Amino acid sequence: METRKPIVETLMKRDGITRSEATAIKREATEELIEILESGGGYEDACEICEDYFGLEPDYLDELLPF
Q1: Backbone angles phi, psi at 60, to 5 degrees
Q2: 21-44 burial, b if ≥16 CB within 10 A, otherwise e?
Q3: What are the structural domain ranges in the chain?
Q4: Digits of tens for pLDDT over the chain (67 positions)?
Q5: Which residues, 6 or more positions from 61, have their beta carbon under 8 angstroms from its beta carbon?
Q6: Which of 3, 6, 19, 54 has fewest C-beta within 10 Å?
Q7: Would you tell me how many other CB atoms lie within 10 Å of the CB of residue 66?
Q8: Residue 52 and residue 28 in contact, taking contact as beta carbons nearer than 8 Å
Q9: pTM score, two decimals?
């Protein structure tokens, strides 16, 4: 079974962006996820972040969770 690469690595390779740019995108997505969770948003709302920010499946959501 192939292991999934971290979001930053995936974005860098797929989109040809720098680590700094990929990290900034991940940080922005994490901040939005925290806002969603704090405002009582549900799982579906949280999963949309991976699609909206990264164009990826919600499998990557665990990397954004602050806990």
Answers
A1: -85, -5
A2: ebeebbeebbebbeebbeeeeeee
A3: 7-62
A4: 668 899 999 999 999 999 999 999 999 999 999 999 999 998 888 889 999 999 999 989 999 987 6
A5: 33, 46, 47, 49, 50
A6: 3
A7: 8
A8: no
A9: 0.87
